[in-house]
Structures
1.
Amino acid sequence: MFNASLLKKFNGIETPFYYYDTKLLRQTLDSAQRAAKKYDIELHYALKANANKQILKLIKDAGFGADCVSGNEVKRASECGFKADKIVFAGVGKSDSEIRFAIKKNIFCFNCESIDELKVINEIAKSENKKARVALRINPNVNAHTHHYITTGLEENKFGINAWELEETLKTIHKSKFLNLIGLHFHIGSQITDLTVFKNLCLKVNDMLVWFANRNVFVENINLGGGLGVDYYHPDKSPVPDFENYFSLFRKFLKTEPNQKLHLEPGRAIVAQCGSLISKVLFVKKGVQTNFIILDAGMTELLRPALYQSYHKMENLTGAKRKESLKYDVTGPICESSDCFGKAVDLPETKRGDILAIRTTGAYAESMSLDYNLRNRAKAYLAEDL
Ligand code: LLP
């Protein structure tokens, strides 16, 4: 990905910065949309993965809707051109003002996570004299077999309405004049690489659909969330995820009615591989048992390793041709021992001033960045900006 001419373009740009390979992003969007059309699936991109305005515009232009989890994400999505009737708003803790804002915007749907939330939306919709379209986010109790911090569909998680609350939920909806139930929503977790997990989800959802049908409740929209994982170990092996295989699985196992629409909310799978965090080596330091590389990027630009012990491939772009390979602990400059991108990482002999790329950082890097230690926010560059 990083040839000499690109490296030359990096010269003079202040590090650290995010670099987005928009050619790869376009290929990914194209492949996702082609497969989605084939399997008649509507895609809502999960803004939380990356809400960079330029990236969002490309995603919007490719025909995606938007999956938002805050009032500001709803605002950002509409500023970037996503039509209100393609915006869904999820989240376990929507504030009254966020709900009012989204009702005024007339968004497609609220994905509701509790009975109390339904009551609040009904009240606010009433005060705005509007009907709010809602989908019930149901906790299906399906194990996503991923990191426990990004598992959301188990009973022990705070997300969604539990199966035993559904009877009461329906009663609440029947009593609420300002709610219009249009769908069911499920999301069981993120970075899921074992696709049988999605099959298990489909089987659970089929049971749910029967449950609703038995009560004469027909829901037009079935939204199965996001979660498709990417290959952090080999970012160049198949940089465009296999959407065809992923989408076909839902059509194979999910028993929807002909007039029921299927929606998915991919985030990571769309943007992860197109992004790299580019950073300069400040110091190389000899430790007792290891050598430390101290980068000018830290957990403030990429929190995932500190938070989930996640792996990101690293490449020394300027030292690639050096023969000797050494083991380094690659760390950032932040005053926390968890500010470490990898331990005992094999890299060519590395020197002060070298430029490193931390790969697969298009998702959940820029969007999770912090200004801890009063750091400046790193800038982002698209391939066409350079
Ligand atoms: N829909 C809902 C309701 C979600 O909660 C999420 C992610 C998505 C869609 C998109 O999931 P994706 O396709 O990106 O897996 N910060 C963590 C990931 C947190 C994901 C939270 N929800 C990480 O860096 O791994």
2.
Amino acid sequence: MSLLVVGSVAYDALESPYGKVERTLGGAATYFSVCASFFTHVNLVAIVGEDFRDVDEAIFRKRKIDLEGLERAKGKCFFWAGKYSENLNERVTLATDLNVFAEFKPLLPEKYRNSKFVFLANIAPDLQRDVLRQVNGKPRLVAMDTMNYWIERTNAELRETLKHVDVLMINDAETRQLSSEHNLLRAANYIFKMGPSTLIVKRGEYGAMMVDANGVFCVPAFPLEEPHDPTGAGDSFAGGFMGYLASAGSKSDLYLRRAMVYGSVMGSFAVERFGLERLLSLRRSEIHARARHFAKLTQFKL
Ligand code: AMP
């Protein structure tokens, strides 16, 4: 089933103890689309500037990612710079330049309007809502991500967008910031009152937790000896999660649990190398092999 995403397509400057890159293709919608396209066809809504390079466009073109919704505008692409701590668990944002996103008025191509699975990736909440408003009828599943930048600057708009969302997928710090609750289960109850019926908390090297009316389901992060760069891990998780669900066309508990595993699988590949590097060389067979590995990793008898 068709999967629609709106979010940032960006150039990133990244620094971790393993190295540094001055400018590489990034953005939440980029990681999401590349990961989801292993599972299903993706309709991308975003905006890029005159500095968007042909080699980067080719990354999307080579995959099952439709670019009719990718607007080109005068000005520069979204730019983000971040630096990670020694243990990769903390990151500071050094720059966020919205550039062409500041004036973006998304217009959904006709063929995107019947999308049944929608992901509102990290971007201004009013843009997320603008896109959702243009989708015909009620999609089967609407999921969204956000981050401290939007929680702090556009809290009222964010709350308005949340009213229309089924699944909120954010990290533990964002969960606590949004709910003002330290305990994640109490935070989930708070967030359910805002609109979503499912909360997925991404917890970096500690895995991910899903809370909904069925209870709690947890997946570990895949144990890696040498992760290099956590950038985009959350968006890759979302790409695996939503890509798998859209390809299955279901949102039953069984499929949601499997989607959590595919999310964790894609997040684990994303962090193995800098930026998109590992995801660009990834093969479907490796994804399925790692999913089987997850099954072994978590199996036990009682
Ligand atoms: P993650 O590591 O999952 O938080 O995602 C990192 C990606 O999000 C980077 O490639 C950035 O370009 C993008 N990004 C960072 N800050 C923002 C923001 N405020 N809005 C939208 N995208 C952002």
